[in-house]
Amino acid sequence: MTEHIRDGFQNYSDTAAVFIDIAKAFDRVWIDGLIYKMHKLKISKQLILLMQSYLKHGNFIVRVVKDLSTPRTTEAGVVRGSRLGPHCFIFINDIYQMPNTQLCLFADDTAIMSTGPERHTNVTSLN
């Protein structure tokens, strides 16, 4: 992203950007949708089964002070802070790209940039 902006600057072009961050994205990953997308991307069946086992069969317990909840099964989300987590955001990899735009994607963070010729505006002094 910085290289794209730097290149535009060196070529006397302006770059505009829109930054998108999905709130609580790691907690909201739709596991069945992720598995479906993996099939569409023709990822190997062995890797899909491994990911499905890793994502769908997790259990968790919530502790508040000394009280523990009953065990629950994970229904959505990926482990935050894991090495695998950011790679589970393949939902946005096929986002439509408009002509003359650059997409920068990392996990749930997206930057949409467009570079064009520098605009010169006349600035009038108040003096």
Automatic annotation (TrEMBL):
<feature type="domain" description="Reverse transcriptase">
    <location>
        <begin position="11"/>
        <end position="123"/>
    </location>
</feature>
<protein>
    <recommendedName>
        <fullName>Reverse transcriptase domain-containing protein</fullName>
    </recommendedName>
</protein>
<dbReference type="Pfam" id="PF00078">
    <property type="entry name" value="RVT_1"/>
</dbReference>
<dbReference type="InterPro" id="IPR000477">
    <property type="entry name" value="RT_dom"/>
</dbReference>
